[in-house]
Design goal:
Elements lengths: L6 H29 L3 H20 L3 H21 L5 H19 L7 H4 L10 H9 L5 H24 L5 H30 L9 E4 H12 L17 E4 L1 H17 L7 E11 L10 E11 L22 H11 L5 E6 L5 E9 L4 E3 L6 E3 L16 E5 L3 H13 L3 E5 L2 H10 L4 E5 L1 E2 L2 E2 H11 L5 E5 L8 H10 L2 E4 L4 H11 L3
Parallel strand pairs: 9-10, 9-11, 11-14, 14-15
Antiparallel strand pairs: 1-2, 3-4, 4-6, 5-6, 7-8, 12-13
Helix pairs in contact: 1-2, 1-4, 1-6, 1-15, 2-3, 3-4, 7-8, 7-12, 8-9, 9-10, 10-11
Length: 513
């Protein structure tokens, strides 16, 4: 962290974020005033106003929060609870209040130019606002939902520690606890998969291209969504360890859609085995030296007893041999192009279907065997970690949710770090005054405070302490100006629930033991 975050920079981010949310609010309100009260419209309005109020409070713009609560929220609650017909007076009040809200936001920094703060006018005769707003907003608060799921996920992991403390003289109790843990793990994974499905189908308008290891991505998708089913043993998943560059949520949609289609087109009553095979070829259509190859992944359901065959020898096309549900395949092919991928289909000798996904990739990741000195493709090689005595690294966790602080601290402590926790910025400052801290993990939104407040102070007083921000909100729910600040002044930004492996990899990268 080499720069200092300023009040003005945070307020500029608030203005841009709030302006975007007001546009969404105006679009949904316009449709509500035209078509009447509908539950999904009130949900979208509440999500939009809550987002503005939350960030307004963290930026100490309480007059804006108070105005939304007293004027807009009360007006929409009155319409919803009384199931009122939309009169001209109601239309006038809502439009006037939204206009006042726009002015309040513009005046946060009076010196800002109109081009930076002016809210663009919506066309009252189009439904584009509705489609955009409802698409970007979920029916319920993802922030609250993901926080709740993070707690369940964390306590489920803690059951393993409890199980180890139960004496072997009570085998039935240990067995019952293990059964409960397995059911919780399955259901939390299933819930996370459902949430990701909803999130990915919320009218995703921004593509987030990042570099990923394809094996890690697919294993994570399989764990979350059970696609492919667990009958596909991960250890036999024949996918080389290579890096690819794509939007993970879009790839997840492609992967899940294709496995679902294979299940739909499965021959009834046939016992099958999930199959997957990856092949690397030279990518002749690119000049990018980092992604000079193409990875093609073949997936299919193979009936038991079928003679083995080479999937690479089949004839593939963009047309599916199955006419039913073909629109799903064509939709999947279309979204694949958004991440420079290509999806094709072929028919097998046993009248089954096989899909191929082709995407640019790098070279196979290799590591060196300690015993022979030969290069071995990852992840077949298991590196023997040498334990060394090193100074303890101290991590400070700042989160207003007690359960989440507890879960996160237990995870990090088990990784070998010393952990301190704080509920608010005042407690965090006391800890910082009393001991050396190597890393701060802070929730973005802390009730009436924000992790940005602490970041702003420490960027002046202790600029060398790295920050990781966490939140229950999706990246799609946080505007680009805020994400720009997080990218500029913090080392990482993680969404809840945080997978233990991702957390470990992030800590290893920032403050390795």
């Amino acid at each position: 962290m080499t720069n200092t975050v300023t009040d003005k920079e945070i307020l500029l981010a608030f203005i841009k974020n709030a302006t975007q949310k007001v546009q969404e609010l105006n679009g949904v309100a316009t449709v509500l005033l035209k078509e009447g009260a509908r539950p999904e419209l009130f949900d979208a309005i509440a999500r939009s106003t809550s987002a503005i109020k939350s960030f307004a409070s963290t930026c100490h713009q309480n007059h804006i929060s108070d105005f939304i609560t007293s004027k807009l929220d009360s007006e929409f609650d009155h319409i919803r609870l009384q199931n009122l017909s939309i009169t001209e007076e109601i239309k006038k009040n809502v439009k006037e209040n939204i206009t006042v809200l726009k002015d309040l936001i513009k005046n946060v920094l009076k010196e800002e130019s109109p081009q930076e703060t002016e809210v663009s006018k919506e066309d009252d005769d189009t439904f584009h606002s509705l489609l955009t707003s409802i698409g970007q907003l979920s029916v319920w608060s993802f922030h609250e939902l993901m926080n709740a799921l993070a707690k369940v996920h964390g306590y489920t992991e803690m059951l393993e520690d409890i199980n180890q403390q139960i004496p072997d003289t009570t085998p039935q109790l240990k067995s019952d606890l293990k059964t409960i843990q397995e059911k919780l793990i399955y259901n939390t994974s299933h819930m996370t998969g459902i949430i990701n499905r909803i999130r990915s189908l919320r009218g995703k308008t921004k593509i987030n291209i990042k570099e990923h290891n394809i094996r890690d991505v697919i294993k994570n998708i399989q764990d979350l969504t059970q696609q492919p089913p667990k009958s596909l043993n991960w250890s036999s998943l024949h996918i080389p360890s290579v890096n690819v560059q794509f939007d993970q949520i879009i790839f997840e949609q492609i992967w899940v859609h294709l496995w679902k289609l294979l299940g739909e087109w499965q021959i009834p009553g046939t016992l099958v085995q999930s199959m997957c095979f990856g092949k690397i070829d030279l990518n002749k259509s690119t000049n990018n030296p980092k992604f000079k190859n193409n990875l093609t992944i073949y997936i299919w359901l193979e009936p038991n007893g079928t003679v083995k065959f080479d999937p690479t020898t089949l004839q593939y096309s963009t047309q599916t041999p199955q006419p039913d549900l073909a629109y799903v395949f064509h939709y999947t092919s279309k979204i694949a192009k958004r991440i420079s991928a290509e999806v094709n289909c072929a028919k097998t000798a046993y009248n089954g279907v096989i899909f191929s996904i082709t995407i640019p990739c790098g070279d196979i990741n290799l590591s060196v065997s300690e015993s022979t000195g030969n290069q071995i493709p990852q992840p077949l090689h298991i590196l023997k970690m040498k334990q060394q005595d090193k100074a303890v690294k101290n991590v400070l966790i700042l989160d207003d949710e007690k359960d989440l602080r507890t879960i996160l601290s237990l995870k990090i402590n088990k990784m070998g770090y010393a952990v301190s926790v704080a509920e608010n910025i005042a407690e965090a400052n006391k800890i910082l005054d009393s001991k050396h801290i190597d890393l701060i993990i802070s929730d973005l939104f802390l009730g009436q405070e924000s992790g940005l407040d602490l970041l702003k102070t420490l960027s002046i007083n202790a600029p060398k302490i790295p920050f990781i921000f966490i939140t229950g909100a999706s990246e799609d729910d946080i505007s680009k100006p805020i994400l720009d600040i997080l990218a500029k002044y913090s080392k990482a930004f993680l969404t809840k629930p945080i997978a233990t492996q991702l957390l470990k990899e992030t800590l290893d990268k920032i403050i390795p033991l």
